[in-house]
What does this fold into?
Amino acid sequence: MRALVRPVPASFSRSLCLSPPASPIDVERARAQHERYRAELARHVEQILELDGDEDYPDCCFVEDTAVVIGARALVTRPGAASRQGEPQATHEALQAAGLSCTAMAAPAALDGGDVLVSGRNIFVGISQRTNRAALGDLRRAFPEHALVPVPVDAGLHLKSAVTRVTERHFLVEDSPCGRQIFAAVAAAEPHASPIWVEEPHAANALRVGDAILHLAGRPALAAALSPLGLELVPLDMSELEKADGGLTCLSILVP
Ligand code: CIR
It folds into this structure.
């Protein structure tokens, strides 16, 4: 397993936010948090593939949104926010150089990778303020052996802001109307799915990599709920990236 990441640019102070943060983003602190994330990731993957940062794209560190990778195939996205639509080009080149077979989306389709949750044969796709139904055709063509399950995401940024998968059958689920609606769709497709309900803010977004789970620090109830899984727990302070609605999954793309 390899992981693609992209540094935090100085322009990150102008990144998109659903609501203005209580205090301004501290870019140096965001960089330190990103560096720690990268270092922890490096302990669990064989190689880190690092793109160059790009000051023209304040949100470019949120590389997850720029491609969906399953096995040796990648669908390079067309992000839903106009200010981010130039980001995927660098991802496309890097994934191609890494040996993946890439296809690219085109208008009117729009999709952020944060809306795509792959679980075995199923791909749950959040239909959100960033991802539209036209993207379903591109996903179907790129990954024809998978079943697509579109799910409305009526609150928050992305599907994976509210639900992530941490083991074959365990899902972290935000205890909110949106989280419950997404998990209902997961459970309908996967009757063995087991929710771990999460009430703490932003805590439902965690990244499983190898035998570890990277999760938000400072959420004691989350840590207590994860500990019976028997995996290595890696708590990370992401305060500055959270101000821009970022979490643990959004900062990398896992590549076989
Ligand atoms: C945005 O609004 O696009 C960025 N500020 C945050 C993107 C986070 N991406 C993700 O969770 N996949």
Q: What stands out?
A: The chain is about 25% helix and 25% strand. The mean pLDDT is 97. The pocket of citrulline is lined by residues 15-16, 59, 62, 64-65, 81, 84, 112-114, 157-158, 244-247, 250 (CB under 6 Å). Residues 24 and 53 are 21 Å apart (CA to CA).
